[in-house]
Amino acid sequence: MAEYLGKQIIPLFTNIKDVPLIIRDQTGVDIKNKSIQMISRDIIQLILKNKSLSGGISHTISSTPELEKKLEEEKRRNEIVDYHGTPLLKFEYDVLMALDEIIGEIPIVFKVDRCTFGFTIRENHVVQLGLFHKELTSLPESIGSLTLLTELYLGGTQLNSIPDTIGNLKSLKELDLENNKLTYLPKSIGNLTSLIYLDLISNQLNSLPESIGNLTSLKILYLSENQLISLPDTIGNLKSLKELDLENNKLTSFPESIGSLTLLTELNLGDNQLNSLPESIGNLTSLKILWLYYNQLSSLPETICNLKSLNILYLHNNELTSLPESIGNLTLLTELYLSENQLTSLPESMGNLKSLKELDLENNQLTSLPESIGNLKSLKELDLNKNKLTYLPESIGNLKSLKELDLENNQLRSLPESIGNLKSLEKLGIDNNGLTFLPDTIGNLKSLTKLSLSYNQLTSLPRSIKKWIKYLKKYGCNVAK
Fold first, then answer.
1. Cα–Cα distance between 401 and 377 in angstroms, integer?
2. Which residues pair with 201 in a beta bridge?
3. Which pTM value belongs to this model?
4. Residue 413: which of 451, 458, 359 has the closest Cα?
5. Which of 110, 137, 419, 431 is most open to solvent, judged by the fewest CB atoms within 10 Å of its CB?
6. Which stretch of 27-41, 165-179, 233-247, 407-421 has the lowest confidence by average pLDDT?
């Protein structure tokens, strides 16, 4: 590209590799280890130097009023001014002074992170700025002059608005606006196309601009603890996104475009008002953790079976009455939380979840368990408290890795003989059932350190357990009567 200035065509380069070596040879401008902005500045300064030596514009460039004006403006912009002992370009100095008048002197520091108050510089440019927990209800419009800023941390500053000029920070990679009072974002936020990390936790946002979809380099987006009721379809354009946190908002639905976020590994939709999920959620095949707790889901789409990379699934505190048979395809699942739902049964395919280590089914309406439950050979914790179980399948004895089993507050009349096969079991809770006897095999549970039997109808204990209880008490173990 080139710009017409007077009678001369001067090339303007956007990539250092495009700058011919002849420029360095003929003008003395050093392009080594410099940004294109720095090279442009050096060339302008060289022109100004030639002008001062010759009493006017260098003979190599024709003078025009427009060019003279541009050169004078550039001269002012490149003036170095002292900010409390730190040399800065004048226009960046002006930004810090505007902030200085509100929050006081900003110290120069070695490094800035999200909890820092200070700034760092490179070649007289501000490149990192942190104003953590400083009372600052608004930013000066001039903030957009910090065009080489890569990190901006404004957590807990009481901001209630962001100026449109924020969109000029084209070099910005990290922007932290956590714990402020923002009710909206300017459309210009979409100009921050280099942004990788955006934190908007704990604000008062009720919507996002369509332009959010322009942040195609974004990898992490935190939006929890806001007032969002919907998301723009353009959210699906964020195809570099790996983490999306929308916990504790007021979302009632989710756009189908979510299915385009195929690199997503963590998705938090917990504590919203969702009553359904889009079928396209099945496209998120890189997903490892999915939070869906505290919603109003009554069912799950069959496409959830496609999430074959999923390790942890939180579904507690919903209104689920059943699970899709396809849930058995989630063979890498290690933790599944289903407490506080209305499940009456489990699909046989649950037995395919052979990587499962924790299964929480507390406070449902289960009356029985599938025989396939015995296939969960990796299971360590099984919580069935507050259900309506009247019996357990014999296959329960196959859970050789099980360490904790909670069967309290059910309607069990007996336990299967196979319960004695749970040689790794350390805690067994069977309070508040209708048990009238215990199988003699319960005495085989040599790893048991806690046994709770309260509020049953037991009239005697098997001989194996009497001796075993004395042994437990001798070693300080907890035995509830």
1. 6
2. none
3. 0.83
4. 458
5. 110
6. 27-41
Dist. CA 12–CA 37, nearest whole Å: 11
C-alpha angle 30/35/41, rounded to 5°? Answer: 65
What is the C-alpha to C-alpha distance for residues 267 and 288, in angstroms, rounded to an integer? 9
- Beta carbons within 8 Å of 433's beta carbon, 6+ residues apart: 407, 408, 409, 410, 411, 412, 413, 455, 456
Adjacent-strand bridge partners of 3: 10
- Find tokens 């941390």 and name the residue: 153
Question: Nearest to residue 177, comparing CAs of 145, 211, 130?
Answer: 130
Please tell me what DSSP assigns to residue 93: H
Q: Which of residues 473 and 403 earns the better pLDDT score?
A: 403
The closest of 94, 98, 63 to 81, measured between CA atoms, is 94
Q: Which residue carries 């048979």 as its tokens? A: 325
Report the alpha-carbon distance of residue 169 to residue 189 in Å, rounded.
Answer: 9
> How many angstroms from the chain centroid is the CA of residue 377?
32
Counted residue by residue, the chain has a size of 481
CA distance 14 to 389: 70
In the block, residue with structure tokens 């079928």: 279
399 pLDDT more than 90: yes
Dist. CA 80–CA 89, nearest whole Å: 5
Mean pLDDT is lowest, of 11-20, 176-185, 353-362, for: 11-20
Compute the distance between CA of residue 243 and CA of residue 284 in angstroms, rounded to an integer: 12
Q: Considering only CA atoms, which of 313, 334, 302 is closest in space to residue 267?
A: 313
Ordered structural domains, the chain, with CATH: 2-78 (no CATH), 389-481 (3.80.10.10)
Specify the amino acid at residue 350: M
Strand partners, 197: 174, 220
What are the DSSP E strand ranges found in 388-464? Answer: 404-406, 427-429, 450-452
CA distance 358 to 335: 5
